[in-house]
Design a protein that fits this description.
Layout: H1 24-43, H2 50-57, H3 61-86, H4 91-116, H5 124-141, H6 143-147, H7 150-157, H8 160-188, H9 195-215, H10 227-237, H11 244-255, H12 258-279, H13 281-285, H14 292-303
């Protein structure tokens, strides 16, 4: 025998997350890309005008090459520090602030010899070299700061269907800096005595980008634009700091993965060899009587 009973069934609709995109995301991407562009421009200050640099400062081509090579040399030890910084509370904003300040310091240090001494003074060449190396080393330390945060920035501010374009734009801004350097540097330094003008121009770029970043660069959007960004923001709000041990553990797991080792080796050898080869175009072509502008055009075409 079956009994029927009257009962009320309550249907509970599942919560649907609403994700909002903010227009300021383009400002954030633009400021970061400006800083990334500057970092590569400052790195390639002297190589596109290697003969003029040698003449103006009285240094060898090997010294000019060392000013360029500080980039990859300093990049390696600074990369773990960037990882630790990004995985702290408001890590992206802290990274951008450090990048802005370091860019200003690096470019300012390089113009100090022109401020404290006349370029015609016999002391000028002697005192300039330590300042040039210091500026290049500081800028080289910013290399990981413009490469490592790109994926976090695109995840934190952009929707899933925009993330690829945002990441590409930020990465290409850095590459575009090298392309522009090979065109602008020889144009400004038409003769060796004009080299300080280039350094002051770089200082102006650093001041402009730095002020924009320091005046306004939010740590994160008011609300998450995606589920992945929501998880990232929740971890940030809980102040989850990932230490060096976790980083080393992850690195060890990557290095013991044959697929990762194969891909990273192939990509690293290809990109690294090409970058250094393109960066030394002026030095390589100088013995063949190519002008700095001709070498710059050759390097620009190869990069494009």
């Amino acid at each position: 025998m079956m009994k029927s009973t009257n009962s009320t069934i309550t249907l509970i609709e599942p919560e649907i997350d609403v994700y909002i995109l903010y227009r300021r995301r383009f400002y954030v991407l633009g400021i970061f890309s400006f800083l990334a562009f500057n970092q590569c421009v400052f790195w390639l200050t002297f190589s596109p005008i290697s003969p003029s640099t040698q003449s103006f400062y009285g240094i060898s081509s090997a010294t000019v090459d060392l000013l360029l090579n500080w980039g990859p040399i300093i990049f390696i030890p600074c990369l773990p520090l960037t990882y630790l910084l990004l995985n702290r509370r408001n890590g992206l904003r802290h990274t951008v602030v450090i990048l802005a300040i370091a860019g200003f310091i690096a470019t300012f240090v390089r113009v100090i010899p022109s401020i404290i001494s006349s370029t015609s003074s016999s002391r000028f060449r002697t005192i300039s070299l330590p300042f040039l190396h210091t500026g290049q080393i500081i800028n080289a330390a910013c290399g990981p700061l413009v490469m490592a945060p790109v994926s976090q920035l695109s995840c934190l501010w952009f929707s899933p269907n925009e993330r690829t374009r945002a990441t590409t734009f930020a990465i290409m801004a850095n590459v575009f800096g090298s392309t522009i350097s090979f065109l602008i540097n020889p144009a400004i330094v038409s003769r060796p005595s004009n080299l300080p003008y280039l350094l002051y121009f770089h200082l102006g770029l650093a001041v402009t980008a730095g002020l924009l970043a320091l005046i306004y660069f939010p740590a994160q959007p008011p609300t998450a634009p995606s589920a992945a960004a929501k998880l990232l923001m929740q971890g940030d709000n809980q102040n989850i700091n990932i230490g060096l041990k976790v980083y080393l553990k992850g690195l060890r797991e990557c290095m013991t993965n044959p697929s990762f080792v194969l891909l990273s080796t192939a990509g690293g050898v290809m990109a690294g060899t090409f970058s250094m080869w393109a960066g030394l175009f002026s030095t390589i072509l100088a013995p063949e009587n190519y002008s700095e502008k001709q070498a710059g055009m050759s390097s620009t075409c190869s990069l494009m």
